[in-house]
Description:
The chain is α/β, with parallel strands linked by helices and 343 residues long. It has 13 helices and eight strands. The protein has helices at 20-32, 46-80, 90-94, 104-115, 118-121, 128-136, 139-145, 172-178, 207-212, 235-266, 286-289, 302-323, 335-339; strands spanning 7-13, 36-44, 149-156, 162-166, 188-190, 193-197, 217-221, 279-283. Helix 1 (20-32) crosses helix 12 (302-323) and helix 2 crosses helix 6. The longest helix has 35 residues, at 46-80. It starts with 6 loop residues before the first strand and ends with a helix.
Amino acid sequence: MNSKTPKTMNLALQGGGAHGAFTWGVxxxxxxxxxxxxxxxxxxxxxxxxxxxxAYGMASGGRAHARTLLRAFWQxxxxxxxxxxxxxxxxxxxxxxxDFAFSPAFYAMEAFTRMFSPAQFNVFDFNPLRDVLKKFxxxxxxxxxxxxxLFVNATNVLNGKPKVxxxxxxxxxxxxxxxxxxxxxxxxxxxxxxxxxxxxVGNPSLFPLxxxxxxRDCLIVQINPIHIHEAPKTAPDxxxxxxxxxxxxxxxxxxxxxxxxxxxxxxxxxxxxGYKYMLMHMIEAEEIMEGLGRASKFNADWEFLxxxxxxxxxxxxxWLNLHYDAIGKESTVDIRKxxxxxx
Length: 343
């Protein structure tokens, strides 16, 4: 019998391709915690897919069904990738490499997608992810029965602004827009507006959870490492770090705003203004994620996805053991120290 005090919180789920299997593992463990309720989810790219699967699973069958859906989805992703040329080579497996370091196919893809756009090489807009999503999510049922507030982030190509799709607006095209890396997939149009991956300007956006949810607790599931131990020296490592910094930058800006409001509230400057003091939490595994290069985000090998999922489960287990009682009372991450400059 679960004797823990009931808690409610919101989730902010980063995107990161196959690294989203880490988030799957985190969510799998959180769903086991029956005393923990989720009010809202803001997700980007793989985070948006994980969040939508959780919300739909909860609406259509409860916690156990949500866990089953998440696992089945990632299994299907791995099966769909079996015939992809992007596979770990024998050398990659011998050296325990997850990053296609010995894969000619990956380097060929990199060169090809820099010369030709998806509009040129994918004229018929083939996207295997569309069929996978159709298999696992009934979007009409989600819109009618969903109890979790869902926010999916995409980037408006025309004005560069973040677009947050809410609840009833979430469709299969919205999810495909949120995961649309423009060198890999054709630009996705929603109601005539072109969108790319939400990670460029909101990975993920926190403001919907602040403005549209009652709970003050926000748990960020961090995929892209913020800190690394040494400056990269090789060209691939430099590209990896540029990618990480770029996909964390929007989150950094939002955290800066939250920290500023927190400070004003602490000083008593915002009394009776409607501003609320956000309690911030974070689950991450930087020590592991730092060792995974950008190319491993395309690695859908089941062994790798299971490894990430188990890492996520264990990290969430450790976090719950340490911080469950703090939910609703205080932040468990020092956002000034983790996210902001030392100036």
